[in-house]
Write a sequence for this structure.
């Protein structure tokens, strides 16, 4: 009941108390306890604590990385395809895909909010958390063995994770090393869908509940905010198939011993580009009118999503 009286924006206890018709002291205690249990979000701001409702994914589910059990994993895997169908019907998504640095290093048109290193270098507080998708898959014997700590949290999200025991603080240098390992292990970079990001997920196509379920849908690329796509020059391809293994979206297939990209599945992550030994793959920026500009901050993103879900009048 209390969670239903919260909004998709951080608010002080006093404001929520008026709406919930409860004494602020009693409410403060309850909201804090709920946020500690990963049911709602708490922003520890210099001006005081702020609380907001959280979506199930990305949000409540990820906050349960330390108390997973087989029942929760089974229920989640049964539920997520339905949730993905609902999420796919929205125009605004919570995450976006940005290219790995090496795939676009010669290009001058990459926007600052598309550059992973720059986004990390801007952060003053960083926490790394275990990847719940890979943890739950390994708990049921289906782990992919890739990077276990793969959720980078920034700013107020980093404090929330640290204070709730969900992750450990790291330096910018350590975060860059994690980024380099993600590139080596072929993980897709998925930051918050905002110019000022609060998180960056490093995802694989085997375990990531978002990518894995996107691949079930027709034309998954149309459901991802991405500004790039891969193009292969057939005449240069030597048919080594490394790009097929690197692609987490199963977007590359071999035809007559040459690699071919299915643009309906390509989310412009760039993972195929840097490992092609003959440089037969380029990452191409979409036409300007097709490029996506993320909202300036996460609150704006959530407000858009809430509006599209009919939760705002
Ligand atoms: S697979 Fe990606 S979305 Fe899922 S928890 Fe790991 S890093 Fe986050
Ligand atoms: S990695 Fe390059 S050479 Fe190898 S199959 Fe892919 S495009 Fe062809
Ligand atoms: S083809 Fe696959 S690996 Fe290459 S950019 Fe597209 S989604 Fe990424």
């Amino acid at each position: 009941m209390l969670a239903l009286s919260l909004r998709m924006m951080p608010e002080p206890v006093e404001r929520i108390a008026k709406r919930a018709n409860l004494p602020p002291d009693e409410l403060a205690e309850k909201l804090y306890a709920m946020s500690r249990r990963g049911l709602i979000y708490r922003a520890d701001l210099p001006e005081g604590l702020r609380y907001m409702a959280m979506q199930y994914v990305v949000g409540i589910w990820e906050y349960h990385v330390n108390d997973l059990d087989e029942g929760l994993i089974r229920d989640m895997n049964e539920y997520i395809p339905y949730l993905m169908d609902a999420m796919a019907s929205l125009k605004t998504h919570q995450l976006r895909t940005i290219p790995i640095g090496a795939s676009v290093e010669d290009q001058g048109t990459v926007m600052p909010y598309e550059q992973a290193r720059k986004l990390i270098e801007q952060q003053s507080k960083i926490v790394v958390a275990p990847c719940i998708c890979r943890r739950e898959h390994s708990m049921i014997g289906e782990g992919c063995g890739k990077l276990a700590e793969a959720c980078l949290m920034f700013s107020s999200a980093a404090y929330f994770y640290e204070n709730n025991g969900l992750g450990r603080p790291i330096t910018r240098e350590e975060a860059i090393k994690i980024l380099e390992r993600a590139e080596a292990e072929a993980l897709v970079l998925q930051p918050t869908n905002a110019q000022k990001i609060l998180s960056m997920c490093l995802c694989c196509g085997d375990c990531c509940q978002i990518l894995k379920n996107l691949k079930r849908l027709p034309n998954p690329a149309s459901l991802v905010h991405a500004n790039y796509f891969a193009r292969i020059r057939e005449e240069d391809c030597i048919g080594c198939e490394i790009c097929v293994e690197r692609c987490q979206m199963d977007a590359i297939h071999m035809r007559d011993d040459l690699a071919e990209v299915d643009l309906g599945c390509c989310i412009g992550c760039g993972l195929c580009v840097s490992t092609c030994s003959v440089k037969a793959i380029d990452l191409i920026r979409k036409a300007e009118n097709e490029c996506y500009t993320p909202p300036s901050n996460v609150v704006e993103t959530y407000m858009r999503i809430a509006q599209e879900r009919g939760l705002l009048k």
Residues 70-88 form the longest helix (19 residues). Residues 230, 246-247, 249, 251-252, 261, 266-272 surround iron/sulfur cluster (ligand 3) (CB under 6 Å). The mean pLDDT is 94.
